[in-house]
Prior knowledge:
The complex is a heterodimer. Chain A is α+β, with helices and mostly antiparallel strands. Chain A has two domains: 2-109, Roll (Ubiquitin-like (UB roll)); 117-245, Orthogonal Bundle (Fumarate Reductase Iron-sulfur Protein, Chain B, domain 2), CATH 1.10.1060.10. Chain A is built from nine helices and seven strands. In chain A, the strands form two sheets. A five-stranded mixed β-sheet of chain A has the order 2-1-5-3-4. In chain A, strands 6-7 form a two-stranded antiparallel ribbon. By secondary structure, chain B is mainly alpha-helical. Chain B is 73% helix and 2% strand. The termini of chain B are far apart. Chains A and B meet through helix 7, helix 8 and helix 9 of A and helix 1, helix 2, helix 4 and helix 7 of B.
Amino acid sequence: MELQLKIWRQKKADSPGGFEVYRVKANEHMSFLEMLDVLNEQLIAERKEPVAFDHDCREGICGACSMVINGRPHGPNQGTTTCQLHMRFFKDGDVITVEPFQARAFPVIKDLVVDRSSFDRIIQAGGYISVNTGQPVDGNAIAIERDTASMAFDAAACIGCGACVAACPNGSAMLFVAAKVSHLGLLPQGKIEQDGRVQKMVAQMDEEGFGNCSNVAACEAECPKQISVSNIARLNRALIAASFQSS
Amino acid sequence: MLMKWLVDFLFRSSIGRKVVMSLSGLFLIAFLVVHLLGNLQLLAYDGGRQFNLYAYFMTHNPLIKTTSYLLYLTILLHAIQGISLAWANRKAKGRTYAVSSNAPISSFSKYMIHFGMIIFIFLGLHMYQFWLQMKMGNAPVLSYPGTDHPVQDLNALVVEAFANPYYVGIYVVSMFALGLHLWHGFQSAFQTLGLNHPKYNGLIRMVGKMYAVAVAVGFAVIPVILFFRQV
Lengths: 247, 231
């Protein structure tokens, strides 16, 4: 299959970017990233600068790959990261537009690579539980109700890729923060620090320049781990409660 | 400062600011029901007697007068906070994508600020046309047998305004915008307060859509009916 790619090229953070058009021959067994690898081989052979993009595990669990494909973070398929998106979902002759994630809190570093360290700072603000190090504790030492464990696990599936922010017309990070607050706060070990955690993580989120949630739910539609906006409601509840009951 | 934490929560925290939008929105949702029920009396075939007496009661009862000032403040709060949030959100997004997404989202949710602006501008006209004229005493004064006080004939103001097809058009278009604003706004208010559970989500969404349609259609048919009664 032969494709026409319209790719956002930007030299560095403060240089102006723009689209450039490339032609590439791919086959339907390739992943989207492998197709970009082919393009880059081609560019290198032509002594041109290859397209910079983030990638790591290439098996859909690390959250490194980003990019917006035809207006959709991680492309058109539901519950799929860019690395797990295969070219069989495209047709010969397709024009594919590839852009970096767009949000003020995710500035472009180069081409399709954006700086998502704002997520790391939100995690550092409170996205952890305090435990003594040493021998791991018995996994079943504290009984957890099955439904609660399932909800916590669904939220814990978040890989922190930032597709929620990229999809949101407001550039809001609420689904990410909600997933972390839910996965920790639903479990007994995380409940202890929940009030402070929620306040600190939301304060950091606001400081990073993310937008405000207006319940559009584009994040839920684009999340490769299909995390539900019901977690955002839980985050809202938790922050309202923490604001009124913390010292 | 006294209650600094509460002021910070309501006007600085992203979630707190949304709680303000939600609570003020729910108050306005409740108000619209009362307003619509009052307006429907305009359709009575009694020369406006029932509506005029109702308007007199609403503007002279101290409890309702106090609530009306709370209402004006709430409208301003909802509008100012909404504009400020929309502005911040625009800045937080920056550039928009070259290709627009076709992902399923909550209908009309991306255009809340646009519908809100239409409604706010409409409110300016609406308040000028009826509220200000009433406050200035520009309506003709009537006295009904059995009442011990003169009553402003607001019904006449309304009927006169809706003889003009342009006003009818503006009202119908504005109510359409209101309906779409409520279509997303109703259920969004509950989500912001954290009220989301599979047990009642369906109910909230269904009631919200029915409410949005009922309010928009209910308000919009009144000028249309009054117009056709006069042609």
